[in-house]
Amino acid sequence: MKAFDLKGKVAVVTGGNGGIGLGMARGMAEAGAAIVVAGRDAAKNAAAVAELAVLGARAIAIPVDVLDEASCKALIAGTVRELGRLDILVNNAGINIRKAPQGYSAAEWHRVLDTNLTSAFLCSQAAYPEMLRTGGGKMINIGSMMSIFGASFATAYAASKGGLVQMTKALATAWAKDNIQVNAILPGWIDTALTRRAREDVPGLHDNVLHRTPAKRWGEPGDFAGVAVFLASPASDFVTGASIAVDGGYSIQG
Ligand code: NDP
Q1: Is the pTM of this model over 0.70?
Q2: What is the count of structural domains for the chain?
Q3: ∠ CA(49), CA(53), CA(58), 5° rounding?
């Protein structure tokens, strides 16, 4: 279907070298987009590029540390230099530091907020002039169930993910006139490196997730391919400022 066609489009995915980011990259690659895999780990970047190339996609890696503003700017500039344009920005890089709120140092707080929230703002800001130049674009921010709910072990993470939803609405409002749509995806509990660590740290998490999720399973990175293509393609041209839960029903169960 033409509305979902991404041929000729260029997508940057921060944290695109694994987990949910790579799941979205695969979907967009299959829909025809060229992909820039943007993570810190060179070996993971290279493996992801190889995997996307097998799908027949043009894929390159541009190493980035989203904690560094200059690195965010260099990512966008490098994308345009290498691939000629930037149509889709997925702000997906994220971390959590699991501990009780009273145990956070200021440095830990800033690390989570800067990785998850400030970086998304900086990359979006850097991408804006390029999308303006080509007549529009798509930005997709990865929130969380912690954009909606709280958890005792995730104060900084919840603050960052709640902030991402509000930032999404503000950017969507500012840039709708420029034909740039900005939306968020709120994943439920997804089986990735991030949550494998959480399963070790939080007793009972695995069973709680199965119990609380109506679909009775953990999500997988592949569950994000379709929604990424939707939000990256003309199919979503009148959708902006929205937050779409991809959570097996986790957030709607009473
Ligand atoms: P992963 O740990 O697999 O992915 C996190 C990605 O972020 C990695 O690719 C990592 O790349 C990248 N990253 C982290 N810090 C930086 C940095 N400073 N600069 C550049 N890249 C960075 O976890 P997920 O796939 O699960 O997480 C992806 C997103 O989804 C995150 O925003 C997370 O909060 C969100 N999410 C995940 C859920 C889940 O259940 N898994 C639920 C809700 C939201 P590298 O290793 O190269 O640094």
Answers
A1: yes
A2: 1
A3: 90
